[in-house]
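Bumping my old thread because nobody answered last time. Still need a sequence for this structure:
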């Protein structure tokens, strides 16, 4: 895998911009997601153990209020919202 620092023509300013973009993306993901995986495993346990499992499970507030409603949108609208919420890293 190639990184920004593999290119000999890359300046330190380009590296700093890439690092700032990654920090912004990590900050956005920390706001929009949860790190508690027990919610996911309890949903999986429920789906495997009941006679009539639900068609959709929402493991946490982020899934309930963001990711599941986002899945009902058309792909172009979902892409626009994801790009607005999670800034992508600029290619070098």
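Sorry it took so long. Here it is:
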């Amino acid at each position: 895998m190639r990184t920004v620092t593999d290119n000999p023509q890359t300046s330190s300013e380009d590296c700093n911009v890439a690092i700032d973009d990654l920090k912004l993306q990590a900050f956005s993901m920390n706001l929009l997601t949860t790190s508690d995986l027990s919610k996911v495993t309890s949903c999986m346990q429920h789906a495997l153990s009941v006679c009539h499992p639900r068609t959709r499970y929402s493991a946490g507030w982020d899934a309930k209020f963001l990711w599941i409603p986002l899945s009902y949108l058309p792909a172009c609208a979902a892409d626009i919202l994801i790009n607005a919420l999670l800034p992508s890293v600029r290619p070098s």
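The first helix runs from residue 12 to 32. Let me know if any region looks off to you.
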